[in-house]
Amino acid sequence: MDRTTAEDYLYREARLLDQGKYRDWHKLLSDDAIYWIPVNDPDANPDEHCSIIYENPVQLADRITRTESTHYWVGDPPVRTLHVISNVTVDGLGNQQVQVESNLVLYSFRAGDHRREIPLDVLPAHCEHHLMPSDGGWKIRYKKITLLNLDGLLPSMAYLI
């Protein structure tokens, strides 16, 4: 995988998330994928320390089902997101897998939100994807999002990053 192909892949993933097409996004994951957003220490063992999210595809499917529920109060008012991706690099991991690193700035906005002093939430982050070839395309085997302010005050994240 070259950098241009990796960028196109990340842009497609971001577009699915921005459009709220979480079921389609979920199809990008391998069956044994790990999706991780650490809190406080980005190098801490997620099996021994708290994380914002540390889930496999089954757990993520459950999260998606909850976001689709009429009882998902944290998603009311609805959240709109915009992912901006930059500084993409690609390295081989062996076994035809690649590691794609990038920077992300995620903007989120709640329509009708009454917090006039903070109209947008801005979350800068470093992303690490491990991608593996699958049926002529690529699947996400591992995704880690390290928020710049992972040890600070974070907004309510009623969406998948």
What does this molecule look like?
The structure is a single chain. The protein is an alpha+beta fold and 161 residues long. The chain contains 3 helices and 6 strands. Strands 2-1-6-5-4-3 form a 6-stranded mixed sheet. Strand 3 (79-94) and strand 4 form a beta hairpin. The radius of gyration is 16 Å and the shape is globular. The two termini are 23 Å apart.
Q: What would you say about this model in short?
A:
It contains three helices and six strands.
Give the strand tally.
Answer: 6
What shape does the CA trace take? globular
Number of helices: 3
End-to-end C-alpha gap: 23 Å
Structural class: alpha+beta
Mean pLDDT: 89
Q: What gyration radius follows from the Cα positions, in whole Å?
A: 16 Å
Order of helices and strands: HHEEHEEEE
Main beta-sheet strand count, sense and barrel state: 6 strands, mixed
Strand numbers in spatial order across the main sheet? 2-1-6-5-4-3
Tell me roughly what share of residues is in helical segments.
Answer: 10-25%
- Report low-confidence residues grouped into runs of 5 or more: none
Instruction: Quote the beta fraction.
Output: 35-45%
Give the helix/strand layout.
Layout: H1 3-18, H2 22-26, E1 29-38, E2 51-55, H3 57-68, E3 79-94, E4 97-110, E5 121-134, E6 137-147
Parallel strand pairs: 1-6
Antiparallel strand pairs: 1-2, 3-4, 4-5, 5-6
Characteristic terms for this protein:
single chain; 161 residues; alpha+beta; six-stranded mixed beta sheet; 6 strands; 20% helix; 43% strand
